[in-house]
Amino acid sequence: METLIRLSPFGLPDAAALGVVLAVWLLIGWFIEHPPKNRPSVSLLMQDYRREWMRQFVTRQPRIFDATMIDNLRQGTAFFASASMIAIGGGIALIGNPAVVLGIARDLTLPTDATGMQLRVLLVVAFLSNALLKFIWAHRLFGYCAILMAAVPNDPEDPLASHRAAQAAEINITAAKSFNRGLRSIYFALGSLAWLLGPAALCVAAVLTGSVLIRREFASASREIILRDV
What we know:
- With 230 residues, the chain is mainly α.
- It is built from nine helices and no strands.
- α2 (12-33) packs antiparallel against α7 (159-192), α2 packs parallel to α8 and α3 runs antiparallel to α7.
- The longest helix is centred in the middle third of the chain and has 37 residues, at 114-150.
- The chain is elongated, with a radius of gyration of 22 Å.
- Mean pLDDT is 89; it is low at 1-8.
């Protein structure tokens, strides 16, 4: 009975809103990674460029540029992993001591139930935790890619050269997938803050977040530039 009382702030509208945001997050991720054949996403288009990068890498001398590129990719994933970890710490601190947020909620005439506030912040922390795990794995995969690139023979005519480069390209693509999944989790973590305003606000934020991601993957100016041919 005590558990039911403590969870009373989490009603049916909140459960429905939570279901909406999780469904949108999963469906958007699947749609971006499995787009229609006649309308590829930016993420899918970039996979071809990553393969082409490794094909050009085989004959490029010296290979300093490629090493710098991989190092930059690893630094980017490390930055987002560190930022996610800091944000998770802040979210856990709010869950443990929600007095600050409750004070702001009172000033804005929002619901001031401590348990409800903690549950809402927990969703943000969950998205951030998923993002952290994705960024950590992407960082490790980019490291594997760097090792495979270093194993590519200097002689382009060596039978192993193209094979090792193709392996590096696929690891690079897998790392990029993990990195992009982490970024999507960051987007939805920010959108989940709207739950503090109520379940309706969370549903609206989920739809808006999904719309932003769809536009950037399928209708952005950068996509049109990537599609330009000679």
